[in-house]
Amino acid sequence: MSDGSNNKKMSIIVTKGTLDWAYPPFILASTAASLDIDVTLFFTFYGLQLLKKDLSHLQISTLGNPAMEMPMMGMHMTMPNIISAIPGVDAMASSMMRNMIKKKGIASIPELRDICVESDVKIVGCNMTLDLFEWTPDMMIPEMELGGAATYMAEALESDINLYI
Amino acid sequence: MATQTLDTKGMNCPLPILKTKKAMKDLATGETLEVLSTDPGSVKDMEAFCKSTGNKLLSSNDNGGVFTYEIEKG
């Protein structure tokens, strides 16, 4: 029984392409796959960014995010918007975030995505988004299938869990 | 005595579950896996994992910050 499916399905629409927002869909998808749930991820708009072969460019943005506290020098600091707007601040904050993730034993996004691929999570890229941003399939991981809204609906109608992230 | 041991100490959610799933694949039905974890969230997560995958959680212990699980492959 344990290597089979339990006939449960989940679908997630992935719309965000920042380092922090990449976590919920990949954590839920990899965990669901571990629980023998069939998973479909539909990547659209900025979410499609997460299917590029190289993910080292992913960043967080501190701009307009008063809830983001970074542990710094024994305190928790939030970034005033006027500082966030300075070029290079996002890159610096992203690099700090990557270090914290590593230090806390949290999986990296490429690691979680690899586990999703290995666990047969179905990865659908939005064809319209690819066209809109003038990206090409060869920029994306080979496991990506292209599809549209109808492809998603067909999966969603059969799923027990449907999420939009 | 467990058939195999998996050490996930220092790993954070969801890695202990993902590694457990991977390790279970190498076992035959009836064989057991011992998992070590320092993630307090793994207590509930391991129960949910076993419930959903048809494996049996034989024991779940907290040895002063290190959680030990014994899982039988179903």
UniProtKB/TrEMBL annotation, chain A:
Transmembrane regions: 21-48, 73-93
Gene3D superfamilies: DsrEFH-like
InterPro entries to which the protein is assigned, alphabetical: DsrE2-like, DsrEFH-like
Keyword match Transmembrane: yes
Record keywords, A-Z: Membrane, Transmembrane, Transmembrane helix
Superkingdom of origin: Bacteria
The name this protein goes by in its record: NADH dehydrogenase
Organism the protein comes from: Magnetovibrio blakemorei
High-level lineage: Bacteria, Pseudomonadati, Pseudomonadota, Alphaproteobacteria, Rhodospirillales
TrEMBL record, chain B:
Boundaries of every UPF0033 domain copy: 6-30
Alphabetized CDD domains for the sequence: SirA_YedF_YeeD
Domain of life: Bacteria
Family recorded in the similarity comment: Belongs to the sulfur carrier protein TusA family.
Protein name, entry field: UPF0033 domain-containing protein
Source organism (scientific name): Magnetovibrio blakemorei
